[in-house]
Structures are given as C-alpha cells and as structure tokens.
C-alpha cells in the first residue's frame, strides 16, 4: 500500500511503538504489529489490533495506571 502521509513510500509488515494518552494516563505499547512505511515510518494498524490496544488501554486506565510501558503480545 502506498503511504497516505508521505505519498512516496510503500508499507511493509513490521512493528511500531504506539503511544496512547487517556485522561491523565500515558500508555506505550512496544512491538505492535503494523504495516510500516519504508520511507517515513508512519504505521497503519489493522482494526483487530486497534480494538485490542484500546481494550488494553481502557483496562490499564481503569486499574489506575498513570504511565505504563509494555510489550504488545498478541
């Protein structure tokens, strides 16, 4: 797929670091599977991965996390 951000690069399967901010919480997920632009590094997540990340983020915020860094494991 051609990157919609830089319009020059092609995406390829890889991994990304996803940072989510929610209320007073900052959540960082490492090694998230994504299609990554080989030119600019922009990443694209599937709907399933996005949904899973949001569920994990909601659970972390509900548990009182303010700053959390974790490795994404499907």
Shape: elongated
Nearest-integer average pLDDT? 95
pLDDT < 50 runs, ≥5 residues: none
Share in helix: 10-25%
Ends apart, CA distance between termini: 23 Å
SSE topology string: EEEHE
Q: From the coordinates shown, what is the CATH architecture?
A: Roll
Main sheet properties: 4 strands, mixed
The chain-level structural class is alpha+beta
CATH classification class: Alpha Beta
Which radius of gyration do the C-alpha atoms yield? 13 Å
* Count of alpha/pi helices: 1
Which properties best describe this structure?
74 residues; alpha+beta; Ubiquitin-like (UB roll); 4-stranded mixed β-sheet; 1 helix; 4 strands; 22% helix; 43% strand
Question: How do you describe this structure in short?
Answer:
With 74 residues, the protein is α+β, with helices and mostly antiparallel strands.
Written description of the protein model:
By secondary structure, this protein is of the alpha+beta class. The chain has one domain: Ubiquitin-like (UB roll). 22% of the residues lie in helices and 43% in strands. Strands 1, 2, 3 and 4 form a 4-stranded mixed β-sheet that branches. Strand 1 and strand 2 form a beta hairpin. The radius of gyration is 13 Å and the shape is elongated. The mean pLDDT is 95.
Please render the helix and strand layout as text.
Elements: E1 11-22, E2 25-37, E3 43-44, H1 47-62, E4 67-71
Parallel strand pairs: 2-4
Antiparallel strand pairs: 1-2, 2-3
